[in-house]
Specification:
Elements: H1 7-14, H2 18-26, E1 34-36, E2 39-41, H3 44-58, H4 63-74, H5 79-90, E3 101-102, H6 104-111, H7 115-123, E4 128-130, E5 135-137, H8 141-152, H9 157-192, H10 200-238, H11 243-248
Antiparallel strand pairs: 1-2, 3-5, 4-5
Helix pairs in contact: 1-3, 3-5, 5-10, 9-10
Length: about 250
């Protein structure tokens, strides 16, 4: 099946080693694969579980604590339902993927600046160090192209980076509000009802349905706001002469 992975494929997608995968299974952190013949196959739920292990480890949780957390999740709930919810929760929010790597020389030649601006781009997560390739990975070529377009239009690189920082802060606030909507109106009522296992699939389905809402809504209102702002600037600031007047030479 298309969603199934061997242990090596799972490890590669999760950014760990096959040895890590086996160790997590031995510790009870990762459910066993589906075995057909002599080959074990893993699904997206296993990938989501590995990503949660990485996230919790980065936050300082020990493997023993993570195991206790997962045991609590699975107590009284079917494993398939738990993995399905974890998959929905951990799925990426953008479908853009990139293997683009640029050297520092290429970045400077294209965008200008120097070591300090490259470092700031890394801090803003516009670039990621790729030491094995002696360069920087570009997580979003579309964002890079947007910055390039602004620079080509005459906007200074420093102003572009300042705007990227401001936009990230704005997006963090917007994302926080959408997450709060789910927590307050879907998750917390589920918790208040005692987290009945039979309701988890419905909560998972609600999470799936709500995922595209943020992008659709923000895209629409941004377009509407841009139209209003451009019209206001055109009327108040640009003050372009009438084409009729110019044509008559008046």
């Amino acid at each position: 099946m298309g969603d199934e992975m061997t242990i090596d494929e799972l490890a590669r997608r999760a950014g760990v080693t096959s040895r890590n995968v086996r160790a997590y299974q031995e510790r009870g952190l990762l459910p066993p694969p589906t075995v057909r013949g002599r080959v074990g196959y893993y699904g997206e739920g296993h990938l989501a579980r590995l990503r949660h292990i990485a996230q919790l480890s980065e936050r300082g949780f020990s493997l023993a604590s993570i195991r206790q957390l997962f045991d609590a999740w699975e107590r009284g709930w079917g494993l398939a339902e738990v993995l399905g919810f974890e998959e929905a929760l951990a799925a990426p929010w953008a479908d853009e993927s990139s293997d683009l790597v640029l050297s520092q020389e290429q970045l400077v030649a294209t965008f200008g600046g120097g070591d300090d601006t490259v470092q700031r781009a890394v801090e803003l997560r516009l670039l990621e160090p790729a030491p094995e390739e002696e360069g920087f990975r570009v997580p979003s070529p579309q964002v890079l192209q947007a910055g390039s377009a602004l620079i080509d239009a005459g906007v200074p690189l420093r102003a572009v980076l300042d705007e990227a920082a401001a936009l990230q802060e704005d997006m963090d606030r917007i994302a926080g509000r959408f997450v709060r909507l789910f927590l307050d109106h879907v998750w917390q009522p589920f918790v208040n009802r005692g987290m009945p296992p039979e309701e988890l699939p419905a909560v998972t389905e609600a999470l799936h349905r709500l995922r595209p809402v943020a992008g659709i809504t923000v895209t629409h209102w941004l377009a509407a706001a841009m139209e209003r702002c451009v019209n206001e600037v055109a009327a108040e600031t640009l003050a372009l002469p009438s084409t009729n007047v110019v044509a008559r030479g008046e």
